[in-house]
Write a structure and sequence with these properties.
The protein is α/β, with parallel strands linked by helices. It is 40% helix and 15% strand. The protein folds into two domains: 2-37 and 316-418, Alpha-Beta Complex (Aspartate Aminotransferase, domain 1), CATH 3.90.1150; 43-278, Type I PLP-dependent aspartate aminotransferase-like (Major domain) (Aspartate Aminotransferase, domain 2, 3-Layer(aba) Sandwich). The chain has a seven-stranded mixed sheet with strand order 2-10-9-8-7-3-4, sandwiched between helices. A four-stranded antiparallel sheet has the order 11-12-15-14, covered by helices on one side. A two-stranded parallel sheet has the order 1-13. Strand 8, helix 8 (213-216) and strand 9 form a beta-alpha-beta unit.
């Protein structure tokens, strides 16, 4: 795969925009906060506005073309997540907005004293909505802790948190801070054994991991297209019977069937078109470069197989990059990595790495790197619980997040800039 990365980079115009007259290119290591997009996704927005710009449900050509595009985009997302039906794909402003809508719908089914299980690892988008309905409806919140030595989820505390009053379990698939991939199939089984629904925040796993909602066994899964090479829009998958039956807030004239009953008002059709293009790009990766991984997915065919093999190919390359990055960081005096750093365990994490550097505030390091046109994040990234748990609630840490369009040369450039501190 390494030999093909330069070819894939050519799909992303932002990667080739010089920062100044010298011709120096920026290094995008800010990917957990949002990825760059392929030209095809940009073209999809232009195509929509040029040829399809109309509201849904009309009898005329542009409206009908919009309807065809919307259904095709749902089919593509269903393939990406291995969902049983395209009608289970809901588009919304962003993952956070969708999760607030979901939490409020579920709240109407709960009684005072019912319990919600949350983790200290999650982004606040999968914490605050549940805390607020607990506050509003007299619910009990139980917390799952982390293992501080490697920032994995402490499964013993999950087991202890589950009771006969547990109604909802909400966890992240992959941490946007420490990169840990959680054992979501195991968590789903534990949640269902307790009689609870399981909600997954898959925002950070979507660009790195082949997601299969049927194999996981969750009830809802949410992600953000701008984290997997698409536009700023959120996506929610839910089991059809739950999407059809939950008491969702909607305007009276809108359709009362999934997914429409969850999509308030007119959607951002141009960005939905770009979501489809982003998924088609990932399928292309599988078609062109993923054949060697096909044996890992014997039950898949067609585009769903292409998506699985494409994600597998990208994941293998990203683990090479992560190995290189961790080797670089391990050589820097006074630098401490939080999370899994054993090269033999890289399949347990995504290539998002956080660290502290003794004597240097995280924001100062990020500013220094930005001056060298290397883009990283500092702070808490809205993962407030784990930052507090690790003792960095105020200052946060420095985060380097890799994507498949990054290169080993960029990591070398990052190392050189870091050593100039």
């Amino acid at each position: 795969m390494t030999a093909h990365i330069l070819q894939l980079r050519n799909y992303f115009p932002a990667l080739h925009q010089p920062v100044d007259e010298s011709g120096l290119l920026p290094v995008f290591f800010d990917n957990p906060a949002g990825t760059q997009v392929p030209q095809s996704a940009i073209d999809a927005v232009v195509q929509y506005f040029t040829h399809n710009n109309a509201n849904s449900g009309g009898t005329f050509a542009t409206s009908q073309r919009s309807d065809v595009m919307l259904h095709h985009a749902r089919e593509l997302m269903a393939d990406f997540l291995n969902a049983p039906s395209a009608e289970e794909i809901v588009f919304g402003a962003n993952m956070t907005t969708l999760n607030f809508m979901l939490s409020r719908a579920l709240a109407k089914t709960l009684q005072p004293g019912d319990e919600i299980v949350l983790t200290r690892m999650d982004h606040d988008a999968n914490v605050a909505p549940w805390l607020l309905i607990a506050q509003d409806h007299g619910l009990v919140v139980r917390w799952v802790d982390i293992n501080e030595e490697d920032c994995t989820l402490n499964m013993d505390t999950l087991e202890a948190a589950l009771t006969d009053r547990t109604r909802i379990v909400a966890t992240v698939h992959a941490s946007n801070a420490v990169g840990t991939i959680n054992p979501v199939s195991q968590i789903a089984a534990m949640a269902h054994a307790a009689g609870a629904l399981y909600v997954i925040d898959a925002v950070q796993s979507a660009p790195h991991v082949a997601i299969d909602v049927q194999a996981i066994g969750c009830d809802f899964l949410l992600c953000s297209a701008y984290k997997f090479f698409g536009p700023h829009i959120g996506v929610m998958w839910g089991k059809y019977d739950l999407l059809a039956s939950l008491p969702v807030y909607k305007v009276r004239p809108s359709k009362d069937v999934p997914p429409h009953r969850w999509e308030t008002g007119t959607g951002s059709y141009e960005t939905i078109a770009a979501v489809g293009a982003a998924v088609e790009y990932l399928a292309m990766v599988g078609r062109e470069f993923g054949a060697e991984y096909a044996s890992e997915f014997p039950n898949f065919t067609g585009r769903r197989l292409e998506l699985k093999t494409g994600m597998a190919a990208l994941g293998a390359y990203e683990r090479e990059l992560a190995t290189h990055l961790l080797e670089v960081l391990a050589k820097v005096p006074g630098l401490r990595i939080y999370g899994i750093s054993d090269p033999a365990r890289l399949h347990e994490r995504v290539p998002t790495v956080v660290f502290t550097l003794e004597g240097y505030p995280a924001h100062e390091v990020a500013t220094h790197l930005a001056q060298h046109h290397i883009y990283v994040w500092s702070g808490n990234y809205y993962a407030v619980e784990i930052m507090a748990r690790l003792g960095y609630e105020k200052e946060g840490m420095l985060r380097v997040g890799l994507a498949h369009y990054n290169t080993h040369d960029e990591i070398d450039r990052f190392e050189a800039a870091l050593r100039l501190l």
